[in-house]
Amino acid sequence: MTPKRWFLSFLVGVGLSVSSSSFLRAESPSSAPAALKTLINQIDTAANQQDLKQLMALYGSEFITTDGLNLEPYSTSLTTLWKRYPDLKYTTELLSWDKAGQGWTAETLTTLQGTSQENGRVVQLKGTIKARQTFEDGKLVRQEILGERTELSSGSNPPQVDVKLPEAVRVGQEFDFDVIVKEPLNDDLLGGAAIAETVASDRYLAPATMELQLLQSGGLFKRVKGPDKPEHRWFSAFLVRPDGMTLVTQRVRFEP
């Protein structure tokens, strides 16, 4: 079985974890300029209305993310995404900001929720993304993903899971990746799979396949060694039983 998934850092570009490289002189949201607050609200409004023309008007022509995604594939794929999740809703919170030249740099936290129909089943999407965004001349020009978590679920009783995964790890360090089913399984069969992928722009819409295996315990438990160089990776776990499935993906930063 190969579940379909979307990485939320592509969907809008904001996430979950707190970066170790947060602003040294970050200002509180209450002191943010009205123009910055308005711009963030306009981006949310255009995305919620799925108005691609209006949304792209708020992005600079040289927009780029630290994952290597630029404006053209971003805008093209948004159209596909909105067709799959026609009720997708975005809510963005400004966490902190700072003056950057003639513009601003802001840390934002975005929550997303939506539903789609996949082979006659309703799929629920929930996610959070935290990002550092740079605005110049009233447009979003650069985006750095600090963290993200995506959860897709389907069925009458999808597994409720608790993910044990660090947000940041030193290069070469070992750590645990555990996804635990919260409720008792009783006599239910549980299948699952786990995978790690290096974050790259060409993987957003073409994630690797995940081959299910019958699990002998109530979750997935992995011991992982980090890469030898700094990078970001997506860690995904897929759990399925007769009356529901859950797919969760979380980003981990590997730092020097």
Automatic annotation (TrEMBL):
N-terminal signal peptide: 1-26
Source superkingdom: Bacteria
Keyword annotations: Signal
InterPro entries noted in UniProt: NTF2-like_dom_sf (IPR032710)
Protein name as it appears in the record: SnoaL-like domain-containing protein
